[in-house]
Amino acid sequence: MISIENLSVEFGVKPLFTDVSYVINRHDRIALVGKNGAGKSTMLKIIAGLQQPTRGRVSKPKELTIGYLPQVMVLSDTLTVRQETEKAFSDTITLEQHLDSLNQQLADRTDYESDEYQELIEEMTNLNEQLTMINSNNRDAEIEKTLLGLGFERKDFDRPTSEFSGGWRMRIELAKILLQRPDLLLLDEPTNHLDIESIQWLEKFLATNSATVLLISHDRAFLDNVTNRTIEITCGTIHDYNVNYSKYVVLHAERIEQQRRAYENQQKMIEETRDFIERFRYQATKAIQVQSRIKQLEKIVPIEIDEVDNSRLNLKFPPAPRSGDFPVICNGVEKSYGDHLIFKDVEFMIRRGEKVAFVGRNGEGKSTLVKCIMDQIPFNGELKIGHGVKIGYFAQNQAQLLDENLTVFDTIDRVAVGDIRTRIKDILGAFMFGGENIEKKVKVLSGGERSRLAMIRLLLEPVNLLILDEPTNHLDISSKQVLKDAIKAFDGTAIIVSHDRDFLDGLVSKVYEFGNQRVREHLCGIYEYLEKKNLDSLQELEKKDKTADKASDKTAAEQPAKPQTSDTLSFEEQKDLKRKRSQLEKTVKATEKQISDLEQEISELETKMTTPEGSSDQNLYIRHGQLRQELEAATEKWMEASEELENLK
């Protein structure tokens, strides 16, 4: 599908790539990995056609469509969320407007027998077929499904995009790209601004979408669930593995070990050759052999080891001063902004030494409760911080508090104590501040680099309660492992706000779920929580809770004097209710099977459409449009029946 041939990119003296070649096949799901600065984002820009290589070329079909999501982009803030998202269908909207124009022309004309009139009819027929094939009638449903999947609520659709943070506006851009259904998706850190639920939705979307995917991510679980091929960029070249990320890690370690052995053997051979030359240099009888060895040395191509594995660096927090048995106690904590309730009736206790996670959709109050614990904002209720608690707090704005006139090295040197001072360069290297970067002034660092530097400072401070708000957003996989190991070995208490499942796995023993203005405690690890949540259908549970909350908020005058239960219904009414439930359950079950069958048939049809024969078969496209319409109708029927059944229950 796409051929990268002898690609070279040079910035200054040191080249980024040299003569890189590989092929991206249709339906590949590729993870692009490598250290920060290796050239991953540059590679995506070159494939997207936004940047030109120094040498080499990228060959791709003319009809190929590409969707590219960069890490940072300039966003428009003049439209509502729905209007901005509708831009994904600009081509379809143009076709619809042209069709309306043709319809109007046909209505105004009376020369029914003329060639021009027949040409208009033929053009209108072709346009109708095109719109049927792309299923234009399903546009609003597709927009809603995608925006809801990425964490928006229906009430957000008509809000101006200017009311949303940069992270949420990036989600709108991601929604537009996904709705365009391009042949190739290029995604640069798509999970950075997503919560766990939205990441899971994106995983399912990419798994069922027929597009080819090339992505960069530091979320190991996301890579494992989405990709089936891994391309590593290192030392100006690439290594291509036809496996997912976890299997690549094993193969990569084996390759590094092989390189290390080959390097050691070569060094041993060089040393022995030099010894021979020095020993017999002045003996005439050995002159020919000495000259031969000298030439042999000149021809040797030095073996390089691709990179140093910094993930094995053993970094520890300083010993935590002892605190009280319960560093944090919440009793009936409530927080509102005006009439907007964030959460209420928050009740929990965190014991000394526990590692807990705050999870939930963005905007549900995770960071707000952290600010309450830090006493940065007012709240209602009782929140106690235990005796002798010393808090180490990491938030994105912590990076803004660094002294801009210090170098990277001096920033850490000023807080490091004891033996750790001898290892500052190793620590900085583990967090991607290697070589000359340690002499950079803080004021020239990017936002991500400042965040990493603030994280290193926190690692060196003697505290007993760590509060980390999205600590992994700007860390690569090896740096995250260093941080994770350090927190696991930390003998104090930790509260971690994160959407990174792999980072939280094996780290936390308790999960606090934020949602529906409540905070629920789950006494388990992150994957047990996710499994339980899927089995229990948390979304339906929250729907019930909302109904219950509304009922409890009503005044006595608004509530019925005596709610009807099965005990107060007559026998006939109970019988009718039971029969109606049974009918609805059958409808739900039947439509679920219908949806499953339709999705299977659509999938099989899409597979045929990707073949050379199928791509030119118009009947397949027409049938595809019909099936999509049937699927939409079945889904709507299932939703209505499910909601009615839920209300009856």
Summary tags:
17% strand; six-stranded mixed sheet; 20 helices; 649 residues; alpha/beta; 18 strands
Polypeptide structure, described:
It is a single chain. About 5% of the residues have low confidence. The protein has a 6-stranded mixed sheet, with helices on both faces. It is globular, with a radius of gyration of 31 Å. α5 packs across α6. It starts with a strand and ends with a helix. The protein is built from 20 helices and 18 strands. 45% of the residues lie in helices and 17% in strands. 30% of the residues are buried. The protein is of the alpha/beta class.
Count the DSSP helices. Answer: 20
Overall geometry comes to globular
- The tally of strands reads 18
Helix coverage percent: 40-55%
Spatial sequence of strands, sheet with the most strands: 5-6-7-3-8-9
Spatial gap, N to C terminus: 52 Å
What is the average per-residue confidence, as pLDDT, rounded to a whole number? 80
Low-confidence stretches: 535-568
Major sheet attributes: 6 strands, mixed
- Whole-angstrom Rg: 31 Å
Q: Classify the secondary structure makeup into a structural class.
A: alpha/beta
Note the beta-strand portion.
15-25%
Topology readout:
Layout: E1 2-10, E2 15-24, E3 29-33, H1 40-48, E4 55-59, E5 66-69, H2 81-85, H3 90-108, H4 115-133, H5 139-149, H6 166-179, E6 184-188, H7 196-208, E7 212-216, H8 220-226, E8 229-234, E9 237-241, H9 245-280, H10 287-299, E10 328-337, E11 340-350, E12 355-360, H11 366-373, E13 380-385, E14 391-394, H12 408-413, H13 424-430, H14 447-459, E15 465-469, H15 477-489, E16 493-497, H16 501-504, E17 510-515, E18 518-522, H17 526-536, H18 538-553, H19 571-609, H20 618-648
Parallel strand pairs: 3-7, 3-8, 5-6, 6-7, 12-16, 12-17, 14-15, 15-16
Antiparallel strand pairs: 1-2, 1-4, 8-9, 10-11, 10-13, 17-18
Helix pairs in contact: 3-4, 5-6, 9-10, 19-20
